[in-house]
Amino acid sequence: MRIGLSLPHYDFSLLGREPISFEQMAEVATRAEHLGFDSLWVSDHFVYSLARYGGAEGLHGSLEPMTALAALAPLTERVRLGTLVLCAPFRHPAILAKSATAIDLLSGGRLDLGIGAGWYEDEFRRFGYRFDPVRDRFRVFEETVEALDGLLPGGPVDLEGRWVRFRGAFNHPVPAQRPRPPIWVGAKGGDRALRLAARHADGWNTVWRWTPEAYGDRVRRARELCEREGRDPSTLRLSLGLYTVVGEDRPDLLARYAAMQRWVPGVIDREPLEAFAADTLTGTPEQLLERLARFAELGVEEVIVAPAPLPFALPDPSMLDLLASAVVPRARSL
After folding, report:
1. Distance (Å, whole) CA 159 – CA 181
2. Could you give the domains of the chain?
3. Closest Cα partner for 193 from 123, 125, 122, 144?
4. What is the pLDDT of residue 158?
5. Which pTM value belongs to this model?
6. pLDDT tens-digit readout, 33-72
7. How far apart are CA 283 and CA 242, in angstroms?
């Protein structure tokens, strides 16, 4: 199993280092590559609020994902670079295909393209995007994934959708990866999303709190839908993002978790460690490896760690060293 890292790219991401800068994110990215992490991931928001997690009101800025990955490409050599995930309504798929191709070429074929339907209503409205009902946003999502599936390999593509209309569209030059960079459907795992993944994507990703039991139920459903679509279920790739807190031993784990509780008031203040650990990647290195093994048995090829109780944050950089020394190398044999 591979271990990826969700990169800090929001104003809240690094303790005492606001506002976020590209240099700060790049420092973490190059360090993570040096430590042996397999991939680096960024998300897609104009602004972000911690209120949905129980944190304080207020908006936090963010780096734009595609330009950030393009800038990281020449600064890294080995790690894969991915979006977790792009918001489909924010970009026309023709523009997205060209951007993705450029990043894939810049990185020598290291791009993973994760895409989702979008969910943050306040963000849509602040920036002039229509926040349609879920069914309509999902329609945009479906058409975007279908369009990219056909366009990224080069085309030509004809597509007559409600939002996407291609007539002989093509994408030249083509990406470095052939037939195209992997496309990941990012979603909780409802039937409509899993069906979309079965039809047009390389894999399915979901985040940030999952027990192996609940995740296993959705994996079984994904495989059923692959069979209905005439696809070999074993070809649908699986990746998973998980909040992560690791300690060298029990006392160290308790101390790190208490520090996380103080770091962002309102998020996990009243949640005991055992409750948090139930559906996250939390514990000593041995406990993390046991949990990773259970996900590996379900077919997960990569777990993307968020070393915090929030996504794309790194309040305790020393946790990367512990993960890199005690978890990442041993996970490869799972």
Report:
1. 20
2. 2-331 (3.20.20.30)
3. 144
4. 97
5. 0.96
6. 999 999 999 999 999 999 989 998 899 999 999 999 999 9
7. 13
